[in-house]
């Protein structure tokens, strides 16, 4: 059977799932409602559809595999009783779907797929780096978070629709302590327009169930100020975050947005092997959160404006250790 990425995205747009019992998952997609029995042995989850029409499609099977691996780090692979033939052969190993392969399949979570540009180099402000692709517009990532029973999404920031939120967030006392960007609405319009125009930064708005809660920047490390402080690979990326809505701060929400943002970054370009960050060395809570999320502490260094800690998350660790599931 041919695998249709556009069909995959349509099937999964409205998906949701809930574990009804330790060995039963209820899955909802555009195909309808399905109940799936799970048997786990030696890290292999065997799935059987026993209620609802088990549509013979790769899209439904991958949605089912997502549902059973989204909260359990111990499941290394998934087998489908009687349905393996619906999956593309090249993603199977010994008749099973590896969890690390599943979670690197971009059409499950990226509403619009992009492809890396051929490796054409260019020079920007003394940095020799690959030419970056044109920036997308609209939603770039969407995922159902089962422990919150709602979607998280990231979309590209738009000064016309997001300025009021961005202005309020940047003037929040807690955000300003880190960002130091409090100011007028005209100043904040300039910042957003500057970030959108900068080819090395992708400014994003994060939402839970369509309610905006924070501002994120994803950047190419080589062209960033951080690139001068370590030996950055061509496709390393870093990120900044401002959680503007107080109601969405704390462990409950970090457990969803932090691994989801890392997941988006790795899916956006398959050549990205490392995600880096540079929190203030004194920001102990943020460093603990990063440590729990798989980031290694590399070194301390001095920016002109702060003492920072370089942290790094590898693609191998994120997918190998199933870090899309938050630490318990």
TrEMBL record:
Question: What species is this protein from?
Answer: Rhizobium aethiopicum
Pathway where this protein functions: Siderophore biosynthesis
What EC class is this?
transferase
What GO molecular function annotations does the UniProt record carry, in alphabetical order? N-acyltransferase activity; N6-hydroxylysine O-acetyltransferase activity
Q: Does the keyword Transferase apply?
A: yes
Enumerate the Gene Ontology biological process terms.
siderophore biosynthetic process
**Entry keyword annotation includes ATP-binding:** no
- Superkingdom, natural source: Bacteria
Which keywords fit this entry according to its UniProt record?
A: Acyltransferase, Transferase
- Acyltransferase MbtK/IucB-like conserved domain residues are 155-202
Q: Which Gene3D superfamilies match?
A: 3.40.630.30
Q: Where is the signal peptide?
A: none
- Catalytic activity, EC: 2.3.1.102
* Name of the protein in question: Acetyl CoA:N6-hydroxylysine acetyl transferase
